[in-house]
Write a structure and sequence with these properties.
Layout: H1 2-46, H2 78-84, H3 86-114, H4 116-130, H5 134-145, H6 150-176, H7 179-186, H8 191-227, H9 239-250, H10 256-288
Helix pairs in contact: 1-3, 1-10, 3-4, 3-6, 3-8, 4-6, 5-6, 6-8, 8-9, 8-10, 9-10
Length: 289
């Protein structure tokens, strides 16, 4: 009995340890995520310097009380650029996933509701979109419509639509066939009213899950677009652009700009992916009840 009790207590401690580690990781990720969101909102107000201000007397300055992270090749304060770069680096992928979520939900719900030939058209359209990688589509859009974030954001949103709609369509079809939907139809309520007031709200946990899970990947795509010089242009502060701008200085022994920006991107993506995974678990568990 003592051996069994010991084995049982050991197993409990292992499970408790794993849960504690998972909760700690989520807590740390949440703190980091909230910090980035605050910086995205209030960054220009808390930045110690103007992120675009040139200072030829402090080119590649080492970290000091005046410049906590040093300066870049034109004397701009790196900390200020990282802080102010949070807004475009975080807002753009959010817009990507919100647009993809709205369009994907519309296609999935309409396909489940009407079925037949419309469902077949939507399915073929989603298959077509799957053939275009998001980053390639964004590069083509930027090449056609010019640099900036508008065209890449729209292109990445279109590329993410099938990933959202593919998950939502079978769930919407199951919801469409439930008895309460038929009862609402018999009562004479319009399809738009039923979908907006009943069907879509019941799919909300799954919709939010898809948006949150895809956010980190969209952030990497936006950073890659800026790194290639097709997003925001200098001297705008943006993390991907900072990595690209600092690349020539690496061989001269000044990796700070690229290094800090790259580490910030990695930290943000990991933090939001951890948060997204926990949010998706909670929402899906609530939806299953």
């Amino acid at each position: 009995m003592s051996a069994i009790a010991f084995a049982g207590s050991t197993r409990v401690r292992r499970v408790t340890g794993r849960l504690g580690s998972a909760n700690l990781a989520v807590t740390v990720a949440a703190v980091i995520g909230v910090l980035f969101v605050v910086l995205a909102i209030f960054g220009p107000l808390v930045a110690p310097h103007d992120p675009t201000e040139l200072d030829q007397l402090n080119i590649f300055a080492s970290p000091s009380p005046a410049h906590l992270l040093g300066t870049d090749d034109t004397g701009r304060d790196l900390l200020s650029r990282l802080i102010c770069g949070a807004r475009p680096s975080l807002v753009a992928p959010a817009v990507v996933m919100v647009l993809a979520g709205v369009v994907g939900t519309l296609l999935a719900v309409s396909a489940a509701w009407f079925g037949g030939w419309w469902d077949a058209i939507v399915a073929r359209f989603l298959d077509l979109l799957f053939g275009f990688p998001g980053l390639i589509l964004a590069i083509v859009a930027a090449a056609v419509f010019g640099s900036g974030l508008v065209a890449p954001v729209i292109a990445l949103a279109i590329a993410n639509v099938p990933y959202v709609a593919r998950i939502l369509r079978p769930a919407a079809l199951r919801e469409r066939n439930l008895p309460y939907i038929e009862a609402l139809v018999v009562q004479g309520q319009s399809p738009w009213r039923i979908c907006l007031r009943h069907l879509v709200p019941n799919l909300a946990p799954l919709i939010v899950t898809q948006i949150v899970v895809g956010y980190g990947y969209a952030m990497l795509d936006i950073a890659a677009i800026s790194f290639l010089g097709l997003g925001l242009q200098p001297p705008s502060p943006e993390w991907g652009l900072m990595v690209a701008n600092g690349k020539p200085a690496i061989v001269d022994g000044h990796p700070a700009q690229s290094l800090y920006a790259a580490l910030t991107i990695v930290l943000a993506v990991v933090a939001f992916n951890v948060i997204g995974e926990r949010v998706s678990q909670r929402l899906l568990a609530q939806g299953a009840r």
